[in-house]
């Protein structure tokens, strides 16, 4: 997970809330709760170019907490909120 | 982040900056007169929000990032500006799910609906055969719904929903409803019958028996992951260890609310009564001010007392049930749900027979005297 380059799906909108944010996928109609402001920061930092590890570092997340973030991001990927950037064709 | 579901529920109980799920009854006008209609619909209210007012509310919901709304009525497609409003919503990133009896979905409209993104349709159907359905929804309504479903299927709409209010007379048809939905490439949605609107009068004859409540629970344990419920059966959670899928809490004024056809805002779709009216979208500050500043909503977001249910071991599982179901059966709001699966509802119902609140805003069509044939004179 840590070396992957994930990005928020273009059909997903984030709505800030006191506990973190709501994420809604207009395509599959799934609604997901991001239950900590730090998760929201990390998700916003994922742009498909930087790795998950880089995003965690940029957001100042202590390494001891990384496993919990990996689990949260995996769950978001299963809901199709996050996906891996498609490989760019070269040449 | 490691917070369990219970902490999330506690956070949601404190309210959100905007609703997650907002129901908007577009009109009180309806071609049908279902005996359990939550909004006692029939006749249009002359104070109905205009197209311009409705669009202004949609613009406000866009700014609040309300991701989707549930549109109902009455029959929402009766409004001449129905498509204009739906297109305005979808064009502003507000997904629309609307409930209809299907009477206005012909082949042309089905194609128009199929062409739209972010649109879901719920066809209301309360029986898998005409006698069962029509006893509740009126003569011919089964055939109307099936015709609409055929038009949607033929237009390639995709997965629309079939929405069922579970009653004493259709509990035994749950498997058949599922098969019917599968046959049309549709998804089944079942919801709880509430004693609201005209349902206040029909609830006592229609609501599922205690034995049937167990049947519903067992059926949902088997099929719940593929069937929508609007999270409306959480009162059944006291029947077992494993909660049913979905949010186990009353969302009234916390994560849901209702806008009625004249712009009044209520705590949920099942409590159209002054006691649960938070304000109006027509007042200064609009919907946002109502959601964020209404005293009623602030009170609903305070921790609620378990009241008479405090000594019951199941309170954590059922949360005391549905506020609207208690209110319209005359049970105190901190009392047991009238359909309490531990049997506490029965005694509460008996104790409550003195002054049961009546639903307000009755738009039922007047009862007409028998028609007398008119003799035509000279033209």
Listing every helix as H and every strand as E from the N terminus to the C terminus, the arrangement of chain B reads HEHEHEHEHHEHEHHEEEHHHHH
Provide a count of the helices of chain A: 3
> Are there runs of chain B of 5+ residues with pLDDT below 50, and where?
none
Task: Name the shape of chain A in a single word.
Answer: globular
Number of domains of chain A: 1
In CATH, the architecture of chain A is Alpha-Beta Complex
Give me the Rg of chain A, rounded.
13 Å
Commentary on this structure:
- The complex is a heterodimer of chains A (91) and B (379).
- Chain A is built from three helices and five strands.
- The longest helix of chain A has 13 residues, at 66-78.
- Chain A has helices at residues 37-45, 52-58, 66-78, and strands at 6-8, 12-17, 20-25, 31-34, 82-84.
- The mean pLDDT of chain A is 90.
- By secondary structure, chain A is an alpha+beta fold.
- Chain A has one domain: Outer Surface Protein A, domain 3 (Alpha-Beta Complex), CATH 3.90.930.
- In chain A, strands 2-3-4 form a three-stranded antiparallel beta sheet, covered by helices on one side. A two-stranded antiparallel ribbon of chain A has the order 1-5.
- Chain B has 379 residues and is of the alpha/beta class.
- Chain B contains 14 helices and nine strands.
- Chain B has helices spanning 5-13, 51-63, 82-91, 107-114, 130-137, 141-154, 174-183, 199-206, 210-223, 286-293, 295-300, 315-318, 323-327, 344-351, and strands at residues 21-25, 68-72, 95-100, 119-124, 161-166, 187-192, 256-259, 264-266, 277-280.
- Chain B has a nine-stranded mixed beta sheet.
- Chain B starts with a helix and ends in a 28-residue tail after the last helix.
- The model of chain B has no long low-confidence stretch (mean pLDDT 92).
